[in-house]
Each structure stands twice: as structure tokens, then as C-alpha cells.
Amino acid sequence: MQSKKRGWWRPELGLALALLAVGVFVVVGTLDVSAAASAVGIGPRFFPMLVGGAITVVGLFYVVDVLRGGRGDPEESEDIDADAPADLKRVALVGGVFLAFTALLNTLGWIIAGSLLFFGLSLALGAEHKIRAAIVAVVLGVGTYLAFVNGLGVTLPAGILGGVGLE
User: Fold this and answer.
1) pLDDT tens digits, residue range 117-155?
2) Among 164, 2, 167, 166, which Cα is nearest to 83's?
3) Predicted TM-score (pTM) of this structure
4) What is the pLDDT of residue 24?
5) Is the C-alpha dihedral spanning 92, 93, 97, 103 positive or negative?
6) What's the CA angle centered on 18, arms 17 and 21, to 5 degrees?
7) What's the sign of the alpha-carbon dihedral 74, 79, 85, 86?
8) SS3 at position 94
9) For the chain, how are helix, strand and coil distributed in percent, rounded to 5?
10) What span, in angstroms and rounded, lies between the C-alpha atoms of 6 and 10?
11) SS3 140
């Protein structure tokens, strides 16, 4: 344990402020949503406002807790080395996979780009069975597309598979 005093700034405060900022961002972003309310009176702003408000409240409580001296619990798991350095190679790979996904989404469409996202993440996180990872990635890509498009009525980019008849 460190015995020297490090000042008022701690990593916990950074996380608390980030959580608070995300909550405020969701609430402010939801204010721009305009559409008619449903028959029950719940419009498209209800759930984003509920989630954003909850995140904001939790963020506020977390900031207050950290400023009053609260600390995160130290890692006590037996299979994790808290002193091991971060694996920046994996972090960079995961970031690269997400950047590639965002660059390819509109061109390739959700099914292909999403499948590549899931497959790339599984490889970046250490999947040993690449064929199984690819099959699961395609199932997840198609499944999430169908769930959002058919189940929720959300439009996702079809990309090069547009007109295949998956909608």
C-alpha cells in the first residue's frame, strides 16, 4: 500500500466524473428527440431519459462518495495479478476492431460488419477456436440484425446485402 498522500485527484474520481458526464450527455441528447407519444403516453424520450437520469444520479452519488474519501475495493481475486502491467496490445487490437467496424458499417452493412466485429473481438481477446468463433460471430451478426429490424423495428444498414430479403 502507498503511504504517501497523492492529493485530491484519484482514478476513482475520474471514473465518477466520466459516469456523470455520460449521464448528462444522454439526458441532453434526448432533449432533441421529437416524435409523437404512443397511446399510453410514453414517447420515444421516456426510456433514454430514465436511463440518462439514473446514470446522472449514480454519477452524482459516486462523485460525492469519492470526494468524501470513498475508495474502490482492492482486487482480491486469486487469479488476477493486480501488479501486472496492462496488456496494451490487446487494448489497441480491440480499439482497432471497433474503428474498423465503424468505418465499414455503412458500406458492408450490419450483418457483415457486425460479424467481423464479433469475430475480430473474439480473436483480440484470445479465442483459441477460430472456426467456432467465426460461426458464432455470423450467428450473432444475423441474430442481432433480425432482432433489431424485425423485433424492434429499428433500421440497421443493410450494406451490400440490401435486397437479399432479410427484413
Assistant:
1) 999 999 998 889 999 999 999 999 999 988 888 877 778
2) 2
3) 0.56
4) 93
5) positive
6) 85
7) negative
8) helix
9) 60, 0, 40
10) 8
11) helix
Residue 23 CA to residue 67 CA, distance in Å, equals: 19
More confident residue, 16 or 7: 16
Render pLDDT for 24-74 as a digit per residue (tens, 0 to 9). Answer: 999 998 888 776 555 556 667 788 888 999 999 999 999 999 888 877 676
Which grid cell is 53? Answer: 437520469
Q: Report the SS3 class of residue 23.
A: helix
Torsion on CA atoms 111, 116, 121, 126, rounded to nearest 10: 130
**99-105 long-range contacts, CB within 8 A, separation 24+:** 105/157, 105/159
Cα 28 to its chain centre, rounded Å, is 19
The three grid cell numbers given for residue 95, joined into one nine-digit string: 480499439
Q: Count of residues for the chain?
A: 167
